[in-house]
Hints:
The chain is mostly beta strands and 196 residues long. It has two helices and eight strands. Strand 6 (157-164) and strand 7 (170-178) form a beta hairpin. The longest helix is centred in the middle third of the chain and has 8 residues, at 77-84.
Amino acid sequence: xxDFSTATNIQNIVLSNFSASWQKFTAxxxxxxxxxxxxxxxxxxxxxxxxxxxxLNIAQVQLEVGSSxxxxxxxxxxxxxxxxxxxxxxxxxxxxxxxxxxxxxxxIGIKDPSTTTEFExxxxxxxxxxxxPSVTLYRPxxxxxxxxxxxxxxxxxxxxxxxxxxxxxxxxxxxxxxxxAGAKVYFYMYTASAEL
Length: 196
C-alpha cells in the first residue's frame, strides 16, 4: 500500500518456473477501503535463487475488478482514446503538452462580427465528458492562458476571453474586445479536465 510514507505488504504471490518462452500469470487479492485510498504498488522480485543479471520482459498487463482474471482485452486505439476523452479533452494534437507554441494545427477560430464588442462561439467536445469539466484557454502562438491569437485588419484588441456555459458536451467561448470595427479572426486552443 502506498500511503506516501511507508509501504505495507498485504499479500505475497509466488509466480514460479519462469522460462525463456512467453507465459501467462494471474494473481488476485482482496483490496480494502484503505488500500483503495492510498494506492497499490506491485513489486516483482527474483527471490534468493536468482543470481546475476536477469532480463524479464512484461507485456499485456491488465488490472481489473472481479473475482477472477479474464482474457486480456486489447482495445483499438480509437476506442481507448474516446474512453480517455470522457475525462480529458483538448484540441492540441495528441502527444502535445498544453501551452506548447504551435503553428495553429487544430486551433479554433472566431470571426469578428464587427458590430459588437462581445462575441462568442460554441466549442463541442470530441465525446460527452463524464462531468462538466474545468476549461483552460490558450493562445496558440505562445501558449499564454486566457488570451487569443489575432489575425486581420482593424484596431480591435482583445481584453479577455473566457469559457462559459460549460457542460459535458462543450462550452461557449466569449471574446471581449475594444476598438473600431475590423475584419479580424481570433484563434485559441483549449483543455478540458473532468478527472476524478
